[in-house]
Amino acid sequence: MLPYDRQLVVFGGAGGYVTTIKMRLSFNDVQIYDTDQEQWLKPPEIEGAPRKRMSHAASIMGGFMLVHGGYNTEQKKLLNDYGIFDLETQKWFMLKLYNVPEGTKVLNRIDDKHFHYDEINSDVLGYRQMHTINAVYD
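The structure assignment produced for this chain is given below.
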C-alpha cells in the first residue's frame, strides 16, 4: 500500500488459499482508496498491466508507481520485470530490460529447481532482496 495525493494505492497481491486448486491466486489489479472521501475509487482498467504477482516491490515516485519482481502463483515463477503505472492517466507502461554488457556481474533469479528459498547466496536475487523499494525525494 503506497500513499499518493491523499490516496492509498495497492497493486496486485495474493488472495486466500484455494483448497480446490491447492494454491493462492495472485492479482495484477490496482485499487485506490481516497482518504478524504473515505471510499474506494473505481478501479482502473488493467490493460497493459504487468503479470499477476505477490511478494513484489513497489514505490511511488512523483506521479508514477514502479512495480518490480514478485512471484506469480499460477505459473510458479519468480518475476524479474518492471512496470510503471501513471497515476494521473491510470495507464501502464512496461519497461524492457536489455542485455547487460559482458563482464558485468549479474544477479540470478532463484529457480526452485536449483536453489532453496532460504539459502543465502550473494549471487542470487530472491524474495528477501525483492521485498522493498525506497523512493528518496529532494
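Interim note for the steering committee: The beta strands are 2-4, 7-18, 23-34, 39-40, 57-61, 64-72, 77-86, 91-95, 108-109, 124-125. The two ends are 22 Å apart (CA to CA).
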